[in-house]
Amino acid sequence: MKYHRPASYKDGLLVLNHLRPEDKAEVEGMGLQMIHVPFGVLASEHATYFYDEHGAPAGIAGVVRLSPTEGQIWMLCTPLITTKPITFVRQAKAWLREVELEYELLWNLADARNYVHHKLLKHLGFKALRTVPTGPEALPYYEIVKLCA
User: Fold this and answer.
1) CA–CA separation, 60 vs 148, rounded Å?
2) Which residues, in sequence order, are bridge partners of residue 110?
């Protein structure tokens, strides 16, 4: 069963109102305002809303194209990903298989404190290259990459 679909600005607001505290801290740690979340949907290619079998929000993701071959991938999640991790990981993998067809490289920064995201990124085939001080407080973030070619 498919539990993801193209995301809208409204989906961004819905996920924003249900974010995991660690995901909220990740956005704020970069020095961004939380209203950045629904606008991220509008600025992204492949913006996708993830949900469970009852329609409850699990997360939202997208890719900001930086060049013809490179994209900055992002994902924010609700607590639902920890109660239904297998379903969520399967949906995220299915989405990522579609996205990878259009890029040679996907990358971003991930908060070093967000352990659940690190597990998810590992399942999705991303590698952490180095730790980078990020945001106004120079918090440790991992630079994550995935080669798609």
Assistant:
1) 21
2) 142
